[in-house]
Amino acid sequence: MALLPSPIRVSLLALALVATPVLAAPLDAAGVKAVLVELDDRQRNGGDYKALVYLEQKEKDKADTVREALIYRRDADDKLMILFARPKAEQGKGYLRLDKNLWMYDPNTGRWERRTERERIAGTDSRRADFDESRLADEYDARYVEEGKLGKFSTHMLELKAKEGVDVAYPVLKLWVDQASGNILKRQEFALSGKLMRTSLYPKWQKLFSESKGSDVWYPQEIRIYDEVEKANSTVVLIKQVDLRSLDANLFTKAWLESKSR
Amino acid sequence: MGQLRVLWQIALRNLFASKINVIIGFIILGGTFLVVLGGSMLDSMDAAMSRSIIGSVAGHIQVYSSQSKEALALFGNMGGEAEISALDDFSKVKKTLETVPNVERVVPMGINAALVQSGNTIDLTLGELRGVLNHLRDEGESPERREKAESLKAHVRQQVEVLKADIAKARLISKASAEDAEDAAVIERVSSEAFWKEFETRPFDQMEYLENRLAPMVSDADLLYLRYAGTDLKAFQKNFDRMRIVDGAPVPDGERGFLFAKLFYEETLKLKSARRLDKIKEARDIKSKRIATDDELKRWVKENSTQTREFLLQLDGIKTRELVARLQKHLGSKETELSALLGSFFTTTDENFDARYAFFYEQVAPLLQLYRVRVGDTLSIQAFTKTGYMQSVNLKVYGTFMFEGLEKSDMAGGLNLMDLVSFRELYGYLTAEKKAEIAELKKKSGSREIAREGAEDALFGEDAKVVEASATPGLIDDSASFGDTAQALRNKELASRVYSQDEIDQGVVLSAAVMLKDPTRIQETIAEIHAAAERDKVPLKAVSWQEASGLIGQFVLMAKLILYFAVFVIFIVALVIINNAMMMATLRRVHEIGTMRAIGAQRAFVLSLVLMETVVLGLLFGGLGMLFGSGLVGWLHSVGIPAGNDALLFFFSGPRLFPSLTVGNLVAAFVIVMLVSAISTLYPALIATRVSPLRAMQAEE
After folding, report:
1. Residues B97-141: pLDDT tens digits?
2. Cβ contacts (< 8 Å) between A176 and chain B: which residues?
3. What is the pLDDT of residue B410?
4. Which residue among A43, A160, B413, B525 is the one 20 to 30 A from B300 at the CA level?
5. Roughly what angle, to the nearest 10 degrees, separates helices B19-53 and B603-639?
6. Using the beta-carbon criterion (under 8 Å), do B437 and A88 form an inter-chain contact?
7. Are the C-beta atoms of residues B55 and B555 closer than 8 Å to each other?
8. Lowest-confidence segment of A223-227, B152-156, B259-263, B486-490 by average pLDDT
C-alpha cells in the first residue's frame, strides 16, 4: 500500500467497501482491482504485528522437519522479521526485510547474507511473501478469469501479472477468492514460462480486532503449500497466535537480531 | 628333426628371395614396433593415473555402507553427489577392517557439497566494518581496532566515489529514471561530510543505511558451489602421498580447518583479471598460442581491458592514488583516471605481455586483494543437512593443496578438504535426541495430516468452514525463544578446541579409504573385507579404486579400451594384407610346390614349409621391430613426452610422461605378432597343400 499516494488509497478503499456486497457476479476491471485492494487491506495492520508460527516441511526421502518461528511485522514501514525459535539448533537464525533487501542471519557464523525474493525460507517451500503483509494491488495487475467452484465454495478466479520493475518471487499468479467471505482459498504461482511452480491452499481464516487499525486484521491460520516442481515436497504454515501490541522500536535492525544470540 | 632342419634351410633361403616377403616383413616390423610402443605407453599411463588416483583420495579400496542407494563416486556423478548412507561409527568400521590381514591403514572420509554465498564488493567491505564495530563495542577501544575501522570507512567512502562517478557518466548517456534519481539521492547523502560525522555517534544506524541502500547498487555478488571431503586430515596427509600443500600450511593436528583445492581456488576465488592473465601466460608459454592469432586470447585481453570495475571498488583512496602513479610511470602516460589507465595496461600484445605480466604481480597485485577468500580468513559454509535443517560453520582457511598428477583435472581439482568434526556438523546426523525434539514440536503445532491428492476436497468439501470465529488476541511471550549466551560461548569454544584421535574416530563417516600391504591383491581383499563385515555385522561394501572413482576410473578403462581397439584394428588390417601377399606368393610358387609334391613331399610338409617361412619372417622382422620399439621407449624414458594440452596432462598425470618397458610388453608383442602371421598364412598354406603335382608340372608346359 505504501507505494500508492494516500488519496488513491482512500478512494480505492471506499470502492472496495462499496464493491463488497455485490461481489457475487463476474467482476469488471474496477471490481477486480477492488478485490485485490480488499485482500491487502484486511490483512494489513495499522500498528505492529507479531505471530507465533509453525513450519512443517515434508521432503522426498527425508524425515519431516518442524520449526517454531516468530514473525514480526511493521506494515507502515514495510518491515518484516522472521526469527526461528525451535528446535534448539535453529534458535537465533532469522530473516530481516529492510527496504528491498532480504537479509538472512545465522548466529553460528555471525554473518549476514543478502537473499533474493525467491529464497526458500529456511529451505522450506514457503517464501518471504507468505509471511509478510499482502501487497497484491501494488505488485500485480489483475484480470478476471471466471466464476467457479472450489469444493462447496463459489469463487472468483483472478489472474495476476507482476507490474514492470517489481521484484516478486513469481511473475504470474492465479487466485481463487471466496465470493462469500472475500478470502483467498487457493493460490497458484507460475514462472514466466507459464510453468506451475507452487499451489497453496488457505483452508482457515481468522480475524482479530486491531485498535491501531480500528478494524479487523485477517490472517490465514493455515497455509498448505505444495511444491509443483518437486511433487513430493510440501510445507504447512500454521499461525498459532497473533499479538498486535507494539513492538520494540529498534526491533527491525540487524543489531537487534544479533543481540538476541550474543 | 631332419625334416625341420630342411624346412628351416628352405625358409632362410627364401627369406629375401621375393619382394613380397620383404613387404610382409616390414608390416610385421611395424606391427611389433607399434605393439611395443603402444603397450608401454598405455601401461605407463595406466600406472601413472592409478598412482595419482590411489594416492590422492581413493586408496586401493573404498568401503561404504551397503545400505546406500547409489554407488560411491568420489569425484562426483553427473548432476550431484551420490546418495550414500552414513556409517554410524567409524571406530567400529576401522576395527573390522583391521582384522583383514592385507589391510595396512584406513582413512575415514565423507564427501558433500554446499553453496557458499558471498555478497558484493560493498557488502564484503561493510561486513568487515560491522565486525570491527562489533568488536569495538563489545571488547572496547584499541588503537589497532580503531585504525582498522578508519581504514575500512575510508574504503567505503572511496567506493561511494566510484559509484558517484558511474552515475554521473550514466547521466551523460541516457535520461535518468526514477530509480536512478533515488540512487543518486542515496549517493548524495552518503558522500556528505554530515553523514560520516553522524557515523561517529550512531555507527550502527548509519551502517544499516549503507547496507540497505548503498550496497544493493552493486551487483557482483557470487554464489559458490563448494565440494568438499571431510576427513581425518592428519591421517590423510600421511597416507596420501600425492597430496601437496601449495599455499599456507596444513591444518594443525586435531584442529578444525579448511584447505582449498588449488585449481578450484584459482578458478573461482581469484580476481578475474588476474586469472585471465595467468591463462594467457599459460596458453602462450605451454601451448605456444599468440594473442595476435588466437581468438580466445583476444577475448581474454578484451575482457581484461574493459572489466576494471572490481579494481576501482576494491581499492581505498590511498591505494588508488598509488596505483595510478605506478601505472602512469610504467605506461609513460599522463592519464589520471584509474579505469582508463587499467584499460590501456590490460590491452596487452604478444610483444609487451611478459613485461606487463611481471609488472602486474610485482607492482599491482600487492595493492589488491587477489582472492575473495585469503589464506588465514574465515570461511562460512552453510549446508542443508540430512535432517532437512540448515547448518553452518565458520572454518579457518589454512591453505591450498593439490593432488600431484591430477592438478589439471576439474573433477579432482574441485575437491576441497575439511576436518571430520566440521564435516559431521554440516552433515547433521539425526540423533535420537533431535528426533524426540522434532516429534514434540510436531505435537505442539497440532497440524493435521492431509494427503496431497484429496486435499482440496478435504479442506473445501461439505463440512468445511473457511472463516473461523474471531481469534482471541494473543499475548506472545517471545523472551524464552531466543538463543542463550551460553550457547554462543559453547559454539565459540567448540570451534577453537583441539580434538583427540578418539573423538575424530568415533562418529559418522560416509566412506573409508583402505591402503593395502600388497596392492596386487585388490579383488581377494575385497572378498575378505565382505566376509569380515558379515562376521562383525557391519553393513560394509568394498569397491576397488577404479569403481570408487566413478567417471575418472571409467576414463582410464575407456582409454585402455580405445587403445586396445586401435591395436586390434591395425592387426586385422595387417592380417588381411599379409594374407593377400602370401596368397600371391603361394600362387607364384605353384610350380615349385608341385615339383616337391611330385618327388614325394607330403601335404603336411608343404603346410609346414609355408608356415615355417612366415615364422622365420616373423622372428627376424618382429625381432627388429621389438628392438626399434624398445629403443624408442628407452629414449622417451630418458627425455619424457611433454603433455601439450589439458587432456594429455590428465592422462599423463603430470607435465611429462616417462614411459617404461616391461618384459610383459615384449612377450605380448612377440606372441601377438607370431599369432597374426601364423593365422594369416594358414589359408595360403592350405591352398598350397592342394596343389596337384600333375597339374603343376603341366602348367609349366
Report:
1. 999 999 999 999 999 988 888 788 899 899 989 999 988 988 888
2. none
3. 73
4. B413
5. 50
6. yes
7. no
8. B486-490
**Per-residue pLDDT at B78:** 67
Mean pLDDT of B677-696: 81
Query: What superfamily does domain A48-130+246-259 belong to in CATH?
Result: Lipoprotein localisation LolA/LolB/LppX (2.50.20.10)
ipTM over 0.95: no
Rounded to an integer, the average pLDDT of B358-387 is: 89
* A208 CB within 8 Å of a chain B CB: yes
Does an H or E element contain B326, and which? helix B317-331
Residue B70 has pLDDT above 90, yes or no: no
* Residue B610 falls inside a structural domain: yes
Q: Which amino acid is at A216?
A: D
At residue B276 the predicted structure's pLDDT band, cuts being 50, 70 and 90, is very high
B468 neighbourhood in chain A, CB within 8 Å: 204-206, 221
- Position A21 scores a pLDDT of 42
Interface touch A57/B388, C-beta < 8 Å: yes
Contact B441, A54 (CB under 8 A): yes
The residue that leads in pLDDT, A140 or B383, is A140
Q: Tell me, what DSSP letter sits at residue A127?
A: -
Query: Would you state the cell numbers that stand for residue B586, as one nine-digit string?
Result: 603361394
Q: How far apart are CA B377 and CA A143, in angstroms?
A: 53
Residue A225 in contact with partner chain B when CB distance is under 8 A = no
Task: Give the residue from chain B lying closest to A185, CA to CA.
Answer: B466
Alpha-carbon distance of B408 to B426, in angstroms, equals 28
* Partner-chain contact B119 A113, CB within 8 Å: yes
In a domain, B522, yes or no: no
Q: Return the closest-CA partner of residue B513 out of B522, B503, B501, B502.
A: B522
Q: Is A188 on the interface with B (CB under 8 A)?
A: no
- Provide the number of structural domains found in chain B: 2
Q: Give B313→chain A minimum CA distance, Å.
A: 19
| Greater pLDDT, A167 or B179 | A167
- The whole-number average pLDDT for the span A159-172 is 92
- Among B164, B196, B220, where does a domain finish? B220
Residue with cell 563489545: B138
Given a cut of 80, whether residue A170 has pLDDT beyond it is yes
User: Is B213 within 8 Å of A99 when comparing Cβ atoms?
Assistant: yes
CB within 8 Å: B441 and A111: no
Residues B34 and B147 in one domain: no
Round the average pLDDT of chain B to a whole number and report it.
86
Does the residue B262 lie in any domain? Answer: no
3-state secondary structure (DSSP) of residue A84: strand
CA distance A176 to chain B (A): 12
Cβ contact, residue pair A89, B488, below 8 Å: no
Please determine, for residue B561, whether its predicted confidence score (pLDDT) is greater than 80. Answer: yes
Q: What is the DSSP string of B160-212?
A: HHHHHHHHHHHHHHS---HHHHHHHHHHHHHTSHHHHHHHHH-HHHHHHHIII
| Whole-number pLDDT of residue B550 | 75
Distances (CA, A) of B476 to A95, A259, B439: 19, 20, 22
Bridging pattern class, strands A184-190 and A172-178: antiparallel
The amino acid at residue A13 is L
Chain B CB within 8 Å of residue A240 CB: yes
* CB burial of residue B618 (10 Å; 0-12, 13-18, 19+): buried
Is the separation of the CB atoms in A97 and A132 below 8 Å? Answer: yes
Give the one of B382, B468, B488 whose C-beta lies nearest to A261's C-beta. B488
Residue B349 lies in a domain: no
| Domain A6-46+132-237, CATH | 2.50.20.10
* Same domain? B564 vs B682: yes
Of B447, B461, B476, the CB nearest to A152: B461
Closest CA to B38 of B615, B494, B669, B673: B669
Q: Does the pLDDT at position A4 exceed 60? A: no
- The pLDDT of B481-497, averaged and rounded, is 67
